[in-house]
Amino acid sequence: MQFQNENSHGLIHPSESSGVVKALILGCGTSTGVPVIGCKCSICTSKDIKNKRTRSSLLITANNKNILIDTSTDLRYQALAHQIERIDAVLYTHPHADHIHGIDELRSFNMLQKQVIPCYGSEFTINRIRNMFDYIFTSTVNSTWKPEIETFPISSPFDLFGLLIQPIKVYHGKMQILGFRVGRLAYITDCSQIPDDSKNMLIHLDVLILGALRHKPHPTHLSIQEAVQIGAELKSKRVVLTHLGHNLEYAETNKSLPQGFELAYDGMEIVL
Ligand SMILES: [Zn+2]
Ligand SMILES: [Zn+2]
Ligand SMILES: [Zn+2]
């Protein structure tokens, strides 16, 4: 199958965009997902749908384009659950399994769209993806048995379909990874520390979606308390906590959070 890459950088100037940005939390779970296989804890066995968390991913819709952040392990399920029938581009935060292992599902979108899908990430992330999924990049024959994607290493703000995408460097343990700011919204998943330069790019947002794994501190993820401190320091109007583990009961944790903070749930929609 021959695809044409219709990646339309610079099609509309950012200032000409309609301004409406929709974000859909496709998954808000940590790497295992919730319930955790075999776990009988009260949250893993909870009947509340908001305690069921697929692996973390966000869909941004703006200027009639669907931009996916990360191809989570659960991408197929998430696309079916939310009737997503088009992915115009993918932004990658980092190359951990839970954020990239759904990459093969991009095939279905190639078949629907008959286009190569552009994928953006740090040079490190792109190199890891190219090594881990070499079957995608080594075959010279276009076909339906592998995703047709094109990779673009990024390190600074760039225009995508008339939207300004700002990569934000954060630390996930010792690994430097990317978050993304799009207009008045930012998505910072797996994170244990945000350097000052990056904090300066995240001040006074309307919505900050920020990773928080559990109550107890963790070496590579923010705890709830640490995430609340950062959200308050950055003066975000609304902070949505994501990448949640199985120690966080939705209703109970939400009640304990200060005003302006809330837990994400799969299927949560944010409109700006
Ligand atoms: Zn993760
Ligand atoms: Zn559990
Ligand atoms: Zn990670």
Structure description:
A hairpin with a 2-residue loop joins strand 2 and strand 3. The chain is globular, with a radius of gyration of 18 Å. The strands form two sheets. A seven-stranded mixed β-sheet has the order 6-5-4-3-2-1-14. A seven-stranded mixed β-sheet has the order 7-8-9-10-11-12-13. The N and C termini lie far apart (38 Å). The longest helix is centred in the middle third of the chain and has 10 residues. The chain has eight helices and 14 strands. It is α/β, with parallel strands linked by helices and 272 residues long. The protein has a single domain, classed as Ribonuclease Z/Hydroxyacylglutathione hydrolase-like (Metallo-beta-lactamase, Chain A, 4-Layer Sandwich). The chain is 21% helix and 26% strand. It binds zinc ion (ZN) (3 copies). The site of one zinc ion has 7 residues, from helix 2.
Mean pLDDT rating: 93
CA(first)-CA(last) distance:
38 Å
Spatial ordering of strands, largest sheet: 6-5-4-3-2-1-14
Strand content: 25-35%
Oligomeric grouping of the chains = single chain
The ordered string of helix (H) and strand (E) elements is EEEHEHHEHHEEEEEHEHEHEE
State the total count of DSSP E strands.
Answer: 14
- How many H/I helical runs? 8
Small molecules held by this entry:
zinc ion
Largest sheet: 7 strands, mixed
Domain module count = 1
Q: What is the correct CATH architecture? A: 4-Layer Sandwich
CATH topology: Metallo-beta-lactamase, Chain A
Structural class: alpha/beta
CATH class: Alpha Beta
| Low-pLDDT stretches | 1-17
The residue fraction in helices comes out at 10-25%
Can you say what the CATH homologous superfamily is?
Ribonuclease Z/Hydroxyacylglutathione hydrolase-like
Q: Based on Cα principal axes, name the global outline.
A: globular
Estimated radius of gyration: 18 Å
